[in-house]
Amino acid sequence: MLQVLSRASPRLSYRLAGWLAGDSQIATILSVIGGGLFGYLGILVGLNAAKEFGGSPALGALAGILILNPASATITLFGEELLPGRGGLIGVLLAAIFIALVERRVRRFVPQSLDIIVTPTIALLITGIITYLVFMPLGGFISDVITKGLTSILDFGGVVAGFILGATFLPLVVTGLHQGLTPIHLELINSIGDDPLLPILAMGGAGQVGAAFAIYFKTKKKRLKRAIGGALPSGMLGIGEPLIFGVTLPLGRPFITACLGAGVGGAFQAAFNIATVAIGVSGLPLAFIVNAGEVLLYLAGLLIAYAAGFIFTYLFGFKDEMAGEFE
């Protein structure tokens, strides 16, 4: 069945996305929009990073431009020409944080009457030199380690790596640490052209949806049914926090069985090397940014995670006595 699905999915998914194919002006417009967003995202990242560290947003944006500027290719250091964009968003973060710190320290010694001219100039000059000498090579090295490390793990570990990554994502969501993965997703897209990690991690929400369905069908408590019914639509659309904090985590064991279901879905996504071309919310909407020939396979993995989360929870994860607080 999986082989038939694998052979059929490219043809069917291309038909589904046919309105975007070829030299269509709609396809061209969307490509320009998407390309501009990811091509110059470093400017927005620099702006917000500098703001968070107490610097001027405009200087943070300039730090991003330092990394992205095509003219940096004319600079030769240590016998090699600089590669524009080298270091990616990690380099941008380093440069933006640095320029914010420099700005704050320089401002202490500059008279207020000269601050508007002198402080930004000194901060930009120091940051520019350090960026091209240190941050771009260092950011590039870190980016290479992250992207090559993750792709090697997925290539070597295969379905096992997919299971582990899928099964451990929900605990990250509980702690809020999943937000720190955004630069990694963006760096994967920037470095290899797509993101094989996001579809695997998206199975975390799918396993939880399956677990919630199992609890809904098994419980007799009306309050619990209402809580699940209100949170399921958002869970299927990739927003899992209502189900996590309102249903599975308070019950305890269903949270674990949801993670196991997510692992099964993650193993499927890893087995077929499903990847996205952008970042977005998980669940059903993620299908719109999956590589065109892999859309049906992604949806199949989503259904498998639903089913696995349902089965694990229905058989092992939930008894109605556990829902005493929902009386």
Question: Which parts are unreliable, with pLDDT below 50 for 5 consecutive residues or more?
Answer: 1-17
- Shape estimate: elongated
Task: Give the structural class.
Answer: mainly alpha
Largest sheet: 2 strands, antiparallel
Topology order in helix (H) and strand (E) letters: HHHHEEHHHHHHHHH
Strand order of the largest sheet: 1-2
- Radius of gyration from CA coordinates: 24 Å
**Strand portion:** under 5%
Mean pLDDT: 83
Give the fraction of residues assigned to helices: over 70%
What is the number of independent domains?
2
Count of individual beta strands: 2
Distance, first to last CA? 44 Å
What does this structure look like?
This protein has 13 helices and two strands; from the N terminus they run ααααββααααααααα. The chain is mostly helical. It folds into two domains: 2-142, no CATH class; 168-326, no CATH class. The protein has a two-stranded antiparallel ribbon with strand order 1-2. β1 and β2 (80-81) form a beta hairpin. α6 (112-167) packs across α9 and α6 (112-167) packs across α12 (253-271). The protein starts with a helix and ends in a 10-residue tail after the last helix. The model is unreliable at 1-17 (pLDDT under 50). Keywords: Cell membrane, Membrane, Phosphotransferase system, Sugar transport, Transferase, Transmembrane, Transmembrane helix, Transport. GO terms for molecular function: protein-N(PI)-phosphohistidine-sugar phosphotransferase activity; protein-phosphocysteine-N-acetylmuramate phosphotransferase system transporter activity.
